[in-house]
């Protein structure tokens, strides 16, 4: 599975190193592991307790999109405060299932945060897969970062044609994971 380094804004312009986000993807048995290392920008948490949170994209968040053939895809949103949102979509922004099962924990370490999410690999859309990852923070101005540049005059992260092919069926477990023995 690929490691993802978000180093540009949504248009593909270089972002300052203080905004760079690293995402490591891996597999452990029947689970997909997503590990995030990101700057903490100090945005306030959502008003709900940590856990599944609707409209998380309105807050400081790192997002991972995983698409299959056609218009089937997953959107995983992770926040430094322990909130998350996990959606299944069919068609651009057409949610067919929300609050999919997910284990997620996040820790803020001064000016950075780290998080680890685990999801059942059976939730992935059929392959071949395509992915993109994004990060959003700030209020005025709001900052939109993307692993891959996206066309258009405003940030639109649901452009499946801009996603990059990725093999998600086999890969080593994400770095820093305690269960390296499960890697294929």
Q: How is this structure best described in words?
A:
The chain has a single domain, classed as Immunoglobulin-like, CATH 2.60.40. Helices cover 0% and strands 44% of the residues. It contains no helices and 13 strands. The strands form 2 sheets. Strands 4, 5, 6, 7, 8, 11, 12 and 13 form an 8-stranded mixed sheet that branches. A 5-stranded antiparallel sheet has the order 1-2-3-10-9, with no helix packed on it. A hairpin with a 2-residue loop joins β9 and β10. The termini are close together.
Rounded Rg: 15 Å
Helix content, binned percent: under 10%
Number of domains: 1
CATH architecture descriptor: Sandwich
Proportion of residues in extended strands: 35-45%
**Subunit organisation of the chains:** single chain
Low-confidence parts lasting 5 or more residues at pLDDT below 50?
172-184
Indicate the CATH topology.
Immunoglobulin-like
> Helix segment count?
0
Mean pLDDT: 90
- Strand count, sense and closure of the main sheet? 8 strands, mixed
* Structural class by helix and strand composition: mainly beta
Shape: globular
């Amino acid at each position: 599975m690929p490691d993802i380094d978000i180093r540009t804004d949504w248009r593909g312009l270089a972002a300052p190193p203080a905004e760079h986000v690293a995402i490591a993807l891996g597999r452990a048995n029947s689970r997909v592991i997503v590990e995030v290392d990101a700057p903490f920008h100090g945005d306030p948490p959502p008003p709900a307790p940590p856990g599944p949170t609707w409209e998380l994209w309105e807050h400081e968040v790192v997002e991972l999109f995983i698409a299959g053939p056609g218009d089937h895809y997953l959107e995983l949103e992770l926040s430094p405060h322990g909130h998350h949102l996990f959606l299944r979509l069919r068609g651009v922004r057409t949610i067919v299932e929300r609050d999919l099962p997910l284990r997620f924990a996040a820790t803020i370490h001064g000016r950075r945060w780290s998080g680890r999410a685990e999801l059942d690999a059976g939730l992935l859309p059929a392959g071949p897969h395509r992915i993109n990852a994004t990060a959003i923070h700030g209020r005025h101005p709001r900052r939109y970062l993307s692993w891959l540049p996206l066309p258009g005059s405003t940030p639109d992260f649901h452009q499946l044609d801009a996603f990059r092919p990725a093999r998600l069926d086999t890969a080593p477990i994400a770095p820093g994971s305690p269960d390296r023995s499960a890697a294929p």
